[in-house]
Design brief:
CATH class of the largest domain in chain B: Alpha Beta
Number of strands of chain C: 0
Radius of gyration of chain C: 22 Å
Strand order of the largest sheet of chain B: 6-5-7-8-9-12-13
Oligomer: heterotetramer
CATH topology of the largest domain in chain B: Rossmann fold
Order of helices and strands of chain C: HHHHHHHHHHHHH
Largest interface: B-D, 57 and 50 residues
Distance between the termini of chain B: 66 Å
Number of helices of chain C: 13
Strand content of chain B: 5-15%
Number of strands of chain B: 13
Chains: A alpha/beta (282), B alpha/beta (433), C mainly alpha (333), D mainly alpha (358)
Helix content of chain B: 40-55%
Structural class of chain C: mainly alpha
CATH superfamily of the largest domain in chain B: Response regulator
Distance between the termini of chain C: 58 Å
Strand content of chain C: under 5%
């Protein structure tokens, strides 16, 4: 673990810093969802949800299976469009955007089931994460010498720093399909980090990991948050981990918000306890 | 392991290249770009057999042409243009005298290539029709008849059946939707102006296994005659569909590529009476077949199974071979040489004269029309006949003599098209005579 | 009734019949795709091969005669006997089952769990192989297929409907090819027996289980390899039926393998995994392309059927990307 | 033993992103290029040009094009031959309408026109995926062939319905038409192949190439990273069609010289190009060449061995050729499902370790 510290220290702050949110001070609101409702056909996935995410915090979304956590993340990064309600980002109300447009605004995420690009190497996956920072057009890319090559090398430096930070130097050129699960999760985090997001969404970053791997991952998440001030919203099942690393917690159940607050507050909330103990809804 | 593999490949390539470079000078080389495989193998096999068997006959019976043996090089094209090019390139270095490309696509390939290489091409009853203009196409021959002759011959047949008056008659053309199938349209339209019939073209898309729409249309519109420019499976299906809608078979006339046994046999008895154009005789009644039986088939030297002897396409292959052999003979006479170059062969083809006496001497009396080739006319006079299918006897019978086509209309079209070609490719007209 | 209206009916009717013929080919694709996720490019060649084998057996041809003659200078062609049609069909079926076993043993066994595109590629290799092998075995000459199927327009229908047309409209009566009627019957029988087979036999149920979920089927002890052999054998049988129906019209020759191209739009329309989809897709394509050729075709030069079938399918796909009856594509994050 | 990575260190990222990171690979590549440019033109004859090298080079461009679309971007297409036909007919129309225009510009413009047509037919790819898309691209294939056959304007109303390439030269050296020398045609194609392969290689290693692969591997994840699926897919369709269009133009003008659309650019050719990239290796530049080589050279080689070498009858040889090619495809798939390129990579990996396997 000590190596993590020393490595992360090498990463310059400028590398993983915000852009659109520059005007927003830590502790101010970065993102807010307001009265969001989402339904598929007749099935309500989210009902009238409101909460905010402050700049620089680690915000957890928890809840039992089927509570609508993933749907919530999907709303935030534009994969689903809610029928009602609004999403405010950096103090502006967000129009209905496509996921790739939202990525350009500075929101990145990882997936519950690893969604790496299986045919590509670790390095290429992370370089793909740099997509929003690369500008050269098709013609420049085709000619390569000059602008495209320069851009590639600049972004390669960033990618290498992330690789160093996540300690995955040895698997740099390995096709990700060949990597073990835990490493794949780490590469996916790297890919999301490469985008230098203002807001990083992590969908169950520790699912299926053993204790050691979970500890590693928790450390990486905290490091990202500490060192670069990246705002993080995460879904996680492991209560212990959630309570340890998050600043504030939103609790969903059956698509409704049943609790919001610091870990201690949430822990003492009766509705939350009932939901987790499986008290019958009536 | 890898080296060994490389070595094998290298060796094989060496074999390939050495094959190409060895040229035999002593023989008269006739390449045969046959297609015994692929979608049209059904038609390619008998033609290739006929071509090869006749060449073998000349070798076995006469000891070659003017004492020089024939060397037949068969090369499989599968009716595929690219393979045809490969075949041409691989055989042209061996002293090949004349090419029968046997496919529209390959013919168009060879027209400029062979002309540049100085090797004559004989596209007999196919290929580029306007190549009949020898002033522009110096090395391309398409005697004795081409598609436009065919169109005119069909109309002439209809004229003859109707007392020379077909005003107001409806004539439909069912054609393969390709360059080949579209060939007769222009001629038929010109002739429609002249004779006052109405013309409808009905295209069938490749390969033509499904022709319901086309034949329902014919059933609705009931044209007085249906002509067909079909190829491959399209022929069989069309004849079957015509039988299905009980179209009178004797008013259904195919071009020579739609008139073989293969086209009518699947339909059985119902194909009885179907007509097709032809520019040569068919059947095994000619004296030459006794020789072929004796010198080729019985000697175990037949090219195929020997079961194709006497069929329409076998006869056509044999006829093509016979014309090639006679052209070579003519060339030998002109140049007073026995061994020929392609250029000399070309002269022989240009001076070729087929007379009844000549054909009778070859054991093929009345087999083809009498014609002669000249410097400005590489297409011959465009004579042709009509044959009819007798389903009970399973054979074709001639129902007309080799008659003339309307050269007045056709020659104008030939001149127009060939001069357009000449302009596009900047070819100067040759001076003739 | 006006002649034009009746002609439209006739075109629709014949379009339906043509559609059945397309469905016959499409069925074989669906069977294999459903059970093993393989897009079997060789289906058309299988139809050709089966039809060639059928005629070869029926007429007592010596397999590989040409090769043997070339190698040993012999002159054998036929055994000199003919086999009754039904017997020949059964023997062909045996050959197709053998073929299925060989395909499984030699090819599929080694390619378990590969991506679909690779299995697709393998069937391309198979198609090449069978194309050459079929010609080597039976020769590439045209073969007339005669197993006593009827052909020609149905006189009964013509006479029954000839009066429908207005006086002087020159209406002949509706036309339907008797062969198509038989084909419809055969297709119907095929679909019913396939449905019965998959509903009421143990093997059939296993087949469906595999189609639903490979892993789950494996875990309850269904042998995937056995299933594959069965599916390929059935597909071989369906290919033979298609080969017979199409071959009856055109004779058995290389072009028979091209009927696969007629089945592809049917597949996209009906969905790769649905047997009813193959039938209904075929009917829609058949009617659609015939109507288009009938109404619009003459204005734009005709011969539109080949591409129109695909365009029709494409239009459907834009609204239903998984085909009419295909399994819905669910995207999850 | 001699093939080694050891001692071949990179000190800059620039070196590390080189096309051939290994020095020995690089040397081998330069030797190959030198041979192709400096030796082959002097020993080439008509047969090698027309039967082997021209079809190989030109089909390589087509394979490269399809590999961009299918191998890199994951969009299976069966419309390749239709797009080649667009290239060929554009080329013909440009050559006859502007006789003074340089053939190089004509060929490249044909590529651009094809790219535009490709973009049009790429639009449905946003909704339609996998085999469904593959079969949908057949609509393009059949429609384009029908169109070129049907509308006389495309073949300048010629009675034959065929298009034939007029003579054109580059700096006085003829590259099209029957009089063009084998070496000239060869060099013209070779230069285009090398340049286009290099451009394609550049595209595939940078931002755009990665966005293609991202869409191929997992389109949803790609979108969430900021990749615009429509733009990316269309760029793949555009680049792919450009390459295919150039290859179609060359196929017509330099290689064949005369073309009938249904026969030369039929559905079989579309399948052939697809076979090339699958056998060669999806998502590999080298694979495009390997696949084209396999399917162009193998039949010629087999034919020469069986007919010319062993003297077998042509038809039996042709049948056996099918059996062997089919058998080899299956064999290669069983040995290495990911194509010749992967086989080559694995061989190299083994060579790197040889003679110490661990």
């Amino acid at each position: 673990m000590t190596t993590t510290q020393s490595n992360s220290a090498q990463v310059s702050k400028s590398v993983i810093s915000g852009r659109a949110s520059a005007a927003i001070q830590p502790g101010e609101e970065l993102l807010r969802v307001e009265n969001v409702s989402l339904a598929f056909g007749g099935v309500k996935a989210l009902t009238d949800i409101s909460f905010d995410i402050k700049k620089g915090e680690v915000r957890a979304i928890i809840g039992p299976n089927g509570a609508g956590k993933s749907s919530m993340l999907n709303v935030i990064n534009g994969f689903y469009h809610p029928q009602e309600g609004e999403v405010w980002f950096c103090g502006k109300k967000r129009r209905s955007l496509k996921p790739h447009q939202i990525a350009h605004q500075g929101i990145a995420r990882t997936f519950q089931n690893i969604a790496l690009f299986k045919g590509m190497s670790t390095l290429d996956n992370i370089m793909t994460g740099r997509f929003t920072h690369m500008r050269t057009n098709l013609l420049m890319q085709a000619i390569w010498r000059g602008a495209a090559e320069r851009e590639e090398i600049e972004n390669r430096q960033v990618a290498e720093e992330i690789i160093d930070f996540l300690e995955i130097q040895a698997i740099r050129k390995t096709p990700v399909g060949r990597l073990p699960y835990g490493l794949q999760k780490r590469v996916e985090l790297g890919r999301a980090l490469a985008a230098q997001p203002d807001l990083l969404l992590l969908d169950e970053p520790m699912a299926g990991m053993n204790i050691e791997e979970k500890e590693d991952m928790s450390r990486f998440i905290l490091d990202v948050n500490d060192e670069f001030g990246t705002t993080i919203a995460l879904i996680e099942h492991d209560m212990g981990v959630v309570m340890d690393i998050s600043d504030r917690v939103v609790v969903l159940d059956y698509g409704k918000k049943i609790g919001d607050g610091t870990p201690t507050e949430v822990r003492s909330n009766q509705a939350v306890v009932d939901a987790y103990l499986g008290v019958a809804h009536d | 392991m890898k080296l060994a593999k490389l070595a094998t490949i290298g060796a094989a390539l060496a074999v390939a290249s050495s094959v190409v470079s060895t040229a035999a000078v002593a023989d008269l080389v006739f390449p045969s770009l046959s297609y015994r495989t692929g979608p049209y193998a059904v038609n390619g096999i008998p033609f290739a057999d006929g071509y090869a068997d006749y060449m073998t006959l000349v070798n076995e019976r006469d000891g070659g042409i003017g004492g020089v043996k024939i060397k037949l090089i068969e090369c499989e094209t599968g009716y595929n243009t690219e393979k045809g090019v490969e075949c041409y390139e691989s055989t042209k270095g061996e002293g090949s005298l004349v090419y029968q490309p046997l496919s529209t696509g390959i013919t168009y390939q060879l027209i400029p290539k062979a002309t540049a290489d100085g090797i004559p091409v004989h596209s007999m009853g196919y290929g580029r029709t306007s190549a009949a203009n020898g002033k522009i196409f110096s090395h391309i021959f398409n005697y004795p008849a081409n598609y436009w002759n065919g169109a005119s011959l069909a109309i002439n047949h209809i004229l003859a059946e109707n007392g020379d008056d077909i005003k107001g008659k409806k004539i439909a053309l069912v054609y393969h939707n390709s360059a080949y199938g579209k060939e007769p349209i222009r001629t038929l339209e010109e002739l429609a102006k002249k004779h006052g019939y109405t013309f409808t073209g009905i295209p069938v898309d490749h390969p033509g296994q499904e022709q319901k729409s086309q034949w329902l249309q014919i059933r609705r519109e009931r044209p007085d005659y249906v002509l067909m420019w079909g190829w491959g499976v399209m022929n069989q299906v069309a004849i079957q569909e015509a039988a299905n809608i009980r179209y009178p078979m004797d008013q259904f006339i195919g071009i020579w590529w739609s008139g073989s046994e293969n086209d009518v046999l699947p339909t059985g008895d119902k194909a009885n009476g179907y007509k097709a154009l032809t520019f040569h005789g068919t059947g095994s009644d000619f004296p030459v077949y006794a020789d072929i039986q004796k010198h080729v088939v019985d000697a175990g030297k037949a090219a195929g199974n020997g079961d194709q002897v006497g069929t329409v396409l076998y006869s056509r292959g044999m006829y093509a071979a016979m014309l090639a052999v006679e052209a070579a003979r003519t060339a030998q006479e002109i140049h007073g040489a026995t061994e020929l170059t392609p250029a000399q062969m070309r002269d022989g083809m240009e001076a070729l004269e087929m007379t009844e006496a000549k054909m009778a001497a070859l054991g093929l009396p009345g087999f083809g029309p009498e014609f002669s080739v000249s410097c400005d006319n590489h297409g011959g006079p465009g004579l042709g006949a009509v044959q009819q299918w007798d389903a009970a006897a399973k054979k074709w019978t001639m129902v007309s003599d080799f008659g003339p086509s309307d050269m007045e209309v056709i020659q104008a079209l030939i001149d127009e098209d060939s001069s357009a070609f000449a302009a596009e490719n900047k070819i100067e007209e040759r001076k003739c005579g | 009734m006006s002649a034009n209206f009746l002609y439209t009916i006739e075109v629709i009717l014949n379009g339906l019949m043509a559609g059945v013929m397309y469905s016959l080919v499409a069925l074989g694709f669906v069977l294999i795709f459903k059970a093993s996720g393989i897009f079997n490019y060789a289906q058309g060649v299988m139809a050709l091969f089966a039809a060639m084998t059928l005629v070869g057996i029926q007429q007592g041809q010596v397999p590989f005669a040409h090769l043997i003659n070339a190698a040993f200078g012999t002159k054998i062609h036929h055994f000199g006997w003919t086999v009754p049609a039904l017997m020949a069909i059964l023997l062909t079926l045996v050959v197709m089952i053998l073929f299925a076993i060989l395909v499984e043993r030699i090819v599929l066994k080694h390619l378990v769990n590969q991506e679909p595109i690779i299995l697709f590629m393998a069937t391309i290799g198979l198609a090449y192989f069978m194309e050459g092998m079929g010609d080597l075995m039976w020769g590439s000459e045209l073969k007339t297929l005669d197993i006593g199927l009827p052909s020609g327009g149905s006189l009964w229908l013509e006479e029954a409907t000839v009066g429908w047309g207005a006086e002087g409209s020159g209406f002949y009566g509706l036309f339907i090819d008797k062969l198509d009627i038989v084909a419809t019957g055969v297709a119907l029988a095929l679909v019913i027996s396939l449905t019965l087979f998959s509903q009421y036999t143990k093997t059939g149920r296993a087949l469906r289980a595999v189609a639903d979920d490979h892993q789950a089927a494996l875990s309850v002890g269904i042998s995937l390899r056995k299933i594959w052999v069965i599916v390929w054998a059935i597909a071989g049988f369906v290919a033979m039926v298609a080969g017979i129906m199409w071959g009856a019209k055109s004779g058995v020759q290389f072009s028979l393998s091209l009927i696969a191209l007629k089945a592809l739009p049917v597949l996209i329309l009906g969905g790769f995994t649905s047997i009813p989809g193959a039938i209904i897709g075929g009917l829609i394509i058949g009617v659609g392309e015939k109507l288009f050729e009938f109404s619009i075709g003459p204005m734009i030069g005709g011969a539109t059927e080949n591409w129109f079938a695909y365009v029709l399918a494409l239009v459907f796909l834009i609204f239903r990307p998984q085909g009419l009856f295909g399994d819905k594509i669910i995207e999850r994050v | 033993m001699f093939y080694r990575q050891a001692g071949d260190f990179k000190t800059t990222y620039r070196e590390d992103i080189h096309t051939f990171p290994l020095r020995q690979d690089r040397i081998g590549y330069y030797i190959l290029l030198a041979f192709a440019f400096l030796v082959v033109p002097f020993i080439i004859n008509d047969y090698w040009a027309s039967a082997v090298l021209l079809p190989f080079l030109i089909m390589s461009i087509a394979a490269l094009g399809l590999n961009v679309l299918t191998g890199y971007c994951g969009q299976v297409s069966l419309g390749t031959a239709g797009f080649m036909a667009v290239g060929a007919y554009s080329c013909y129309k440009l050559m006859t309408a502007f006789p003074e225009l340089s053939i190089i510009i004509v060929v490249l413009t044909s590529g651009v026109i094809t790219a535009l047509v490709g973009l049009l037919f790429g639009i449905p790819s946003l909704r339609i995926k996998g085999f469904y898309l593959a079969v949908a691209t057949l609509a393009a294939q059949f429609f384009l062939v029908w169109l070129f056959n049907k509308v006389p304007w495309f073949y300048n109303n010629s009675a034959s319905g065929q298009i034939s390439a007029p003579v054109r030269d580059i700096a006085g050296v003829m590259v099209t038409g029957p009089e063009a020398q084998a070496w000239a045609k060869y060099l013209f194609c070779l230069v285009l192949v090398v340049v286009l392969a290099w451009l394609t290689r550049n595209l595939t290693r940078g931002r755009i190439g990665r966005s293609w692969m991202a869409i191929r591997d997992m389109d949803i994840a790609a979108e969430i990273i900021g990749v615009n699926p429509l733009k990316t897919k269309l760029s793949a369709f555009g680049v792919s069609s450009f390459l295919i269009g150039v290859s179609g133009a060359l196929y017509f003008s330099v290689y064949l010289g005369a073309v009938e659309v249904g026969e030369v650019f039929g559905i079989q050719k579309s399948f052939l190009v697809l076979f090339m990239i699958i056998i060669g290796g999806l998502g590999s530049i080298f694979g495009s060449f390997a696949g084209a080589a396999f399917l162009v050279l193998m039949p010629v080689l087999l034919k020469n061995i069986m007919v010319a070498g062993l003297g077998w009858p042509t038809d039996i040889a042709a049948h056996i050729e099918f059996v062997i090619v089919g058998g080899l495809i299956i064999f290669f798939l069983i040995v290495e499902p990911h194509g010749l390129a992967q086989l080559w990579r694995l061989t190299k990996e083994k060579l790197l370790l040889w003679p110490f396997p661990h």
